[in-house]
Task: inverse folding
């Protein structure tokens, strides 16, 4: 397909969030005419930015996507490296659990600033435009037709060659997919909600160690804190809604934190804690799975619209960014042919996005409960040792997910195999120790005691054999 033909093709990207704006950059780079329709006003000029504010953890998959459009260095320079989890016990003791090797880290990134940078990047392409305040009313995927409502209140019909739904977990584009036969969809609200709090700077610096993701694991709930470039920390409390509902007054909140997170109170501040806790209600978290991600060769879903995940593996944004990168790689492979790229994208990507959805659910249990276990710490140390000895054969799950582009579903299969190997290895090790200990014990026993044990064994064998024979006698 030559460049003039590519230029004539029009693509409508629905949603100007993280995935939508990144996708627009990829598509504009291929000389398509790209129009992004975003329901919100421009967050770069808005007085108040609406939407989620959970800090983001940028890792390898997301960085590779940013690198492909030349933005990696710019975005990475605005992040704070986090090299380990810092576990805060109830007693106040802190223990670091590294994410990987000394050179491996994830980056704490501001969602709002990243979105602003991506929107600015889109507008640098002369063949791309972002239409703010334009809400999707209707979508006819088979005809490549969308109807949007602008700030003037007049619906406008737009015809395009491809519709890309990047409009989040409650996607309007996906709702039109759901009217079609053989489209599978499921959603799950977990029984936990989240609430954000802030640890302000202390004496002009971070109040805690900045290069860690701080975790207060309390088995059925937890609090985390990620560092910000303004020297503050954004804290997020994840807890069952029924527990949130028990905290009705400022004193209730203070008593709760004194019982479960006592070392955080002087960091947040008593008055700030009692006030900020009631600024917004606890927010829900949803997990979405669907199949397929495309409809013929005219419409497709990406990011949360295709696979919203809970935030506990830090892969929601990274998986969405990898969607864009995978599709771009397929466009190279199939020479921009939508009729080939869209079905292949669904076939290739669905197993991976479903796998990271399941892993994200699992990792919540690990973060709020398993990290308290000495057995968990012991297993992590074994994994690190094996990875150091056999770096290409044995790779910890977190490393595969966060520091590589090994496909998510392949990482899960490999993880299960490695767990079996470790379990069998530990069983063999314990068995050998038991045999060796028994051998040493027998070797150093007095002869009379050895003869006594041997006689006892012979006696047990005699009665076992005679008893067994009598049971078989007619």
Result:
């Amino acid at each position: 397909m030559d460049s003039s033909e590519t230029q004539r093709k029009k693509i409508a990207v629905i949603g100007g969030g993280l995935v939508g704006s990144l996708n627009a950059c990829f598509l504009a780079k291929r000389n398509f005419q790209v129009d992004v329709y975003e329901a919100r006003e421009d967050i770069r000029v808005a007085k108040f930015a609406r939407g989620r504010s959970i800090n983001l953890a940028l890792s390898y998959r997301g960085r590779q996507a940013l690198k492909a459009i030349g933005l990696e260095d710019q975005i990475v320079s605005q992040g704070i490296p986090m090299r380990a989890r810092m576990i805060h016990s109830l007693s106040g003791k802190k223990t670091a659990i590294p994410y990987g090797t000394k050179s491996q880290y994830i980056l704490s990134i501001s969602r709002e600033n990243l979105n602003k940078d991506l929107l600015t990047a889109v507008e640098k392409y002369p063949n791309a435009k972002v239409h703010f305040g334009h809400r999707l009313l209707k979508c006819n995927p088979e005809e490549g037709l969308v109807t949007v409502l602008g700030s003037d209140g007049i619906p406008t019909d737009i015809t395009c060659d491809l519709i890309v739904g990047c409009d989040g977990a409650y996607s309007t584009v996906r709702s039109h997919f759901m009217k079609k036969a053989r489209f599978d969809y499921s959603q799950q609200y977990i029984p936990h909600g989240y609430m954000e709090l802030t640890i302000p700077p202390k004496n002009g610096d971070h109040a805690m160690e900045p290069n860690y993701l701080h975790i207060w694991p309390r088995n059925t709930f937890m609090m985390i804190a990620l560092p910000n470039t303004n020297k503050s920390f954004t804290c997020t409390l994840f807890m069952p809604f029924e527990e949130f509902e028990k905290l009705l007054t400022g004193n209730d909140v203070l008593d709760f934190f004194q019982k479960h997170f006592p070392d955080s109170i002087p960091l947040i501040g008593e008055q700030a804690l009692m006030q900020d806790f009631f600024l917004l209600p606890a927010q829900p978290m949803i997990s979405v799975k669907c199949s397929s991600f495309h409809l013929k060769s005219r419409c497709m879903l990406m990011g949360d619209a295709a696979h919203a995940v809970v935030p506990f593996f830090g892969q929601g944004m990274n998986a969405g960014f990898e969607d864009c990168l995978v599709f771009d790689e397929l466009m190279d492979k199939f020479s921009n042919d939508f009729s080939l790229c869209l079905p292949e994208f669904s076939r290739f990507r669905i197993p991976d996005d479903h796998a990271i959805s399941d892993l994200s659910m699992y990792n919540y249990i690990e973060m709020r409960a398993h990290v308290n276990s000495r057995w968990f710490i012991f297993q992590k140390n074994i994994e690190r040792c094996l990875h150091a000895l056999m770096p290409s054969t044995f790779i910890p799950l977190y490393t595969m997910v966060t520091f590589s582009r090994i496909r998510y579903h392949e990482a899960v299969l490999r993880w299960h195999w490695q767990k079996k190997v470790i379990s069998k290895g530990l069983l063999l090790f314990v068995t050998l120790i038991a045999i060796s200990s028994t051998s040493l014990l027998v070797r150093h026993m007095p002869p009379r005691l050895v003869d006594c044990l041997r006689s006892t064994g012979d006696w047990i064998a005699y009665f076992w054999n005679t008893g067994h024979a009598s049971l078989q006698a007619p």
In short: Residues 408-443 form the longest helix (36 residues). The radius of gyration is 28 Å. Residues 468 and 474 are 12 Å apart (CA to CA). The chain has a mean pLDDT of 88.
